[in-house]
From TrEMBL:
PANTHER family hit by this protein: DNA REPAIR PROTEIN RECO (PTHR33991)
Gene3D superfamilies, alphabetized: Nucleic acid-binding proteins, Recombination protein O, C-terminal domain
Protein name per UniProt: DNA repair protein RecO
Entry GO terms, CC: bacterial nucleoid
GO BP terms in the entry: DNA recombination; double-strand break repair
Length: 240
């Protein structure tokens, strides 16, 4: 069987038969892949805990006829231990891997930028660099922006005038609207909420680290992600 080697983050695992698991991973060079890890559910297995969610591994994969098979996995960064030791970080990491899994739907399509964003977010969680929920929400918004759903927040999406106050946000129209143009589906957003939402999208930690995430900002992240991913991120609810 031909082999390929890549670096990957484990997004999800599922049981397969008595002793095996299917591991869903986002890789640096091969996009999202699913591969079987044989014997991984036996007490003594050659993979140890290296194929658990949030692990960043160097993998050697054998291309199979139906499913690929993990032949080797070495840990690169042990994000999993510090993340799992902190409940908030664990929940946020759940949001992150669930988002990556849903957002990158095609397998074997290279997405190095999404991969970079993913390891950046897990690294920040593992190091307790910022409030975990903010890391999760910022990741969600930035991953969606990279996928083409960047919210337009600086100017009205209808007339192009700079966003004033009051500002309205229409998720379906992709950004803010002025008082004159706002459509019935839009809702009014306080400047402080808009500012925080924009900071999440930019990954602007100077703004974000200076305060708590407002409930209205979190709601915008939920609305935006549900609309553009066409389904809710289940783990996001746990963060509330
Ligand atoms: Zn306008």
């Amino acid at each position: 069987m031909p082999l390929y080697r890549d670096e990957a983050v484990v997004l999800r695992t599922a049981k397969l038969g008595e002793a095996d698991r299917i591991i869903t991973m986002l890789t640096r060079g091969h996009g999202k892949i699913r591969a079987v890890a044989k014997g991984v559910r036996k007490v003594r297995n050659r993979f140890g805990g290296r194929l658990e969610p949030f692990m960043r591994v160097d993998v050697l994969i054998a291309t199979g006829r139906s499913l690929d098979v993990v032949s080797q996995a070495d840990a690169i960064a042990a994000y999993a231990a510090p993340i799992c030791a902190d409940y908030d970080a664990y929940v946020a990491a759940g949001v992150i891997v669930e988002t990556a899994d849903k957002l990158v739907s095609a397998e074997h399509e290279r997405t190095p930028v999404q991969y970079q964003l993913l390891i950046g977010a897990l690294n920040a969680l593992a190091k307790h660099a910022h409030a975990p929920a903010m890391v999760g929400d910022s990741y969600v918004m930035r991953a969606l922006a990279l996928a083409g759903w960047l919210p337009r927040l600086a100017a009205c999406v209808v007339c192009g005038d700079p966003a004033g106050s009051p500002a309205y946000l229409s998720v379906a129209s992709g950004g803010v609207m002025c008082a004159a143009d706002h459509t019935p589906d839009s809702h009014r957003v306080e400047p402080v909420v808009l500012n925080q939402f924009a900071a999440l999208v930019r990954g602007d930690w100077t703004v974000l680290d200076s305060g708590e995430l407002l409930p209205d900002t979190r709601r915008l992240v939920e609305e935006w992600s549900e609309y553009y991913m066409e389904r809710p991120i289940r783990s996001l609810r746990l963060l509330d």
